[in-house]
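testing teh design pipeline on a random one, pls ignore if ur not involved
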């Protein structure tokens, strides 16, 4: 299902410049998961970009448009048309578009883990946009073009100063000893809603980290608010050569099941149990 008017004119600033925001929300039988976190991030983005925000009532109606079962709601908010070149209009008339599509989670990745690699592309540092899910995602597109091997599921991104930031469409978590950690995102990267919910519920420290730290961690995960948490079983360099491997343990399941509960997914059995 899509919004009544899903088209965008060529002069829409979201289409022309990436001048806008988007959210992808897991919805089950019309009930959105982590909805307050998605709305809070969208409203924060509106404030920081200077785009008039939709009313909460308008936003709250959207998940109810989803059909039965598991769906993903994608909503896109642009500044609208107008202005001259990059100069935005003094009074913006934003456009809100949305669609709902059926979704099935990748249970094999939950159960068996995934292989990932480092990307050669480096993220630009821009604190004014850090954390936002804005429409300009060309860095992620270029990074995702770096590999075509279907066995490699995700790529890890660092910034221009060599700090680990995120994966192309997921946040990163790891365990060193008894310490759970995730990269700081004050300079760049997307502050995921699942990441925020986990930070509020678990003792996860936000740290500045060199990507080489991952070669020695006890466990590594990637996650977002649609797919949940995937454990990593192999990490490769930018050429596809293996840097580290992990066997799945119950330690992996602890973080995964915290995410499963937040998203309404089934709790996973202990590692090694089908």
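output:
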């Amino acid at each position: 299902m899509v919004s009544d008017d899903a088209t965008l004119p060529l002069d829409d600033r979201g289409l022309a410049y990436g001048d806008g925001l988007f959210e992808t929300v897991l919805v089950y039988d019309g009930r959105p998961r982590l909805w307050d976190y998605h709305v809070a991030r969208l409203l924060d983005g509106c404030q920081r970009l200077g785009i008039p925000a939709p009313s909460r009532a308008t936003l709250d109606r959207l998940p109810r448009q989803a059909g039965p079962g598991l769906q993903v709601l994608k909503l896109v908010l642009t500044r609208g048309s107008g202005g001259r070149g990059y100069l935005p209009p003094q009074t913006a008339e934003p456009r809100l578009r949305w669609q709902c599509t059926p979704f099935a989670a990748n249970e094999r990745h939950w159960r068996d883990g995934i292989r990932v690699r480092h990307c050669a592309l480096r993220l630009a540092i821009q604190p004014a946009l850090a954390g936002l899910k804005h429409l300009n995602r060309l860095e992620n597109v270029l990074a995702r073009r770096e590999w075509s091997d279907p066995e490699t599921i995700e790529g890890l991104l660092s910034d221009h100063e060599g700090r680990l930031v995120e994966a192309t469409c997921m946040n990163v978590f790891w365990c060193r000893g008894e310490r759970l950690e995730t990269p700081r995102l004050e300079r760049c990267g997307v502050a995921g809603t699942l990441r925020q919910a986990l930070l509020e519920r678990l003792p996860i420290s936000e740290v500045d980290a060199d990507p080489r730290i991952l070669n020695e961690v006890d466990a590594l995960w990637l996650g977002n608010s649609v797919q949940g948490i995937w454990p990593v079983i192999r990490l490769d360099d930018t050429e596809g050569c293996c840097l580290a491997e992990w066997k799945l343990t119950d330690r992996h399941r602890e973080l995964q099941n915290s995410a499963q509960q937040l998203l309404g997914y089934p709790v996973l059995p202990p590692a090694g149990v089908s």
